[in-house]
Amino acid sequence: MDKVLQSRLEELSAQQLRRKLTEVGSPQGPEIEIEGRKYSNFSSNDYLGLAAHPRVREGARRAIEEFGAGSGASRLICGDLAPARRLERKLAEHLEAQAALVFSSGYAAALGVIPALVGPEDTLILDKLCHASIIDAAKQSGAALRVYPHGNVEPLAEHLDWASARSGQTLVVTESIFSMDGDRAPLRAIVELKERRPFWLMVDEAHAIGVLGQAGRGLANELGLAARIEIRLGTLGKALGSAGGFALGSGTLIEWLINRARSFIYSTGPTPSACGAAEAAIDVLRETPEPQRRLWENIRALEEAADLKCESAIVPVVVGDEAATLEAAASLREAGYWVPAIRYPTVARGKARLRVSLSAAHSAQAVAALAGELKRIRELVAP
Ligand SMILES: *Cc1c(COP(=O)(O)O)cnc(C)c1O
Fold first, then answer.
1. pTM for this structure?
2. Catalytic (active site) residue 131
3. Rounded to whole angstroms, how far apart are CA atoms 307 and 200?
4. pLDDT tens-place string over residues 303-326
5. Among 315, 234, 314, 250, which residue's Cα sits nearest to residue 282?
6. Beta strands 123-127 and 341-342: pairing type?
7. Quick one: how many helices (H) and strands (E) in the chain?
8. Is 175 labeled as catalytic in the residue annotation?
9. How far is Cα 344 from Cα 319, in angstroms, rounded to an integer?
10. Measured between alpha carbons, how far is residue 102 from residues 84, 92, 257, 265, 296 in Å?
11. Is 316:182 a contact under the CB 8 Å cutoff?
């Protein structure tokens, strides 16, 4: 087997698509230590700097002391520990949903929710740039699949017309902030399409919760649309500084997911520490606007200094060519900046990019210095 795999790996190397892990020897923060060297870290999804926040650490510690390290079993067997329940109540209350259900990851949430809602007789319509978790879930569901060009509601409306001729339900899925482009979905226009053709709408708010909306309630809440969206997905692993995922919706939806979402039923419940940490992170969001305000100060500062347009904490610098992107990332690394090169299959071939993620924990100086580096890089890779 190894011989076959080795030659496949070499093929990836030849296409500049081989990936490798890098061991990090420090907590998540504006600086990370890798192989003994300190880097200014612009790669983490820890947008509010909560992953290593004292309150969040304390939330994890308290949950461990009270409930131990492990969850013991699937939540339907005996793993439905109080920290998960408490977290669900807090998520539902803070994010203004009737109910919430916590999964072991955001990936598991998507994989559980979509096939629980649609099957071969139904239609699933996705934005072209939806995250891999949504694509994988779509395939697993067996639903008839239609994909519309990124952010473009007219072709989406045409797919809805097509779907209306079929029997079964129609589910439309979009992210609110897109993970590799950092831009916003036209959420209001999508919701308005419901007046023409009814459908179920699921919005993945992985990169919006904590970042957008009052007290980090996400884009749907910021636009006052949450009540018109049947399912919202989120992760505990980004702005909430922990690990795990969740779905928000009606009590009936959550009841159905408990009965039908396979990644929920057949997987150990999230650990007490992960739940305790996320609960503390929500407490921080509720008590102080400071991390979110600092994050947006940094976003606006980078926008101005590097002459970029930013709609979220994710700032793509599209280079195009895979090898040139790797070179750009290496050059930044040389200068002490950790910024990931994102390549196929995470983005389309020839759309490789540097993906800068900003955090509330970055100092103004660090952001200004990065802006200077990005200008240098853009001159370097310009055709
Ligand atoms: C990160 C991400 C997920 C997966 O969340 P995890 O908790 O990391 O598994 C799902 N959807 C989107 C859009 C993401 O960016």
1. 0.96
2. yes
3. 38
4. 999 999 999 999 999 999 999 999
5. 234
6. unpaired
7. 14, 13
8. yes
9. 13
10. 7, 11, 11, 12, 28
11. yes
